[in-house]
Amino acid sequence: MGGGRDAMALFTSRGPVAEVFRFGLVPIACRARNEDRSQVALSLNNNEVNIYGRAASEWKLQETLQGHDLRVTGIDWAPSTNRIVTCGAVSLLCIYLTFSCG
């Protein structure tokens, strides 16, 4: 497609088989998963964080978090508080209270 490469994420399961998913044509700069691995937060090399939820065999976009002026460079998802922390290219730190899906 247009000479670009798909943004891919390789998620290892608790078993012997890894799963590969595609989230678009731009590189994934950073990503994190929630504790039960039912959601993933990722940044596609821009200033947004997209949260995807697992729906059967594919990932569906649930929410887009904004707060950075420049590119997001790191994401972490705290398992005990279910908060997402991101840092950006100019050392800006954002903390998001996550939502409940379902």
Automatic annotation (TrEMBL):
The entry's keywords: Cytoplasm, Cytoskeleton, Repeat, WD repeat
A Gene Ontology biological process in which this protein takes part is: Arp2/3 complex-mediated actin nucleation
Q: Which domain of life is it from?
A: Eukaryota
InterPro entries registered for this protein in UniProt: ARPC1 (IPR017383), WD40/YVTN_repeat-like_dom_sf (IPR015943), WD40_repeat_dom_sf (IPR036322)
Offer an example of a GO molecular function term for this protein: actin filament binding
Where found, per UniProt?
A: Cytoplasm
Q: Which GO terms describe its cellular component?
A: Arp2/3 protein complex; cytoplasm
Tell me the protein's name: Actin-related protein 2/3 complex subunit 1A-like 20
* Phylogenetic placement of the source organism: Eukaryota, Metazoa, Ecdysozoa, Arthropoda, Crustacea
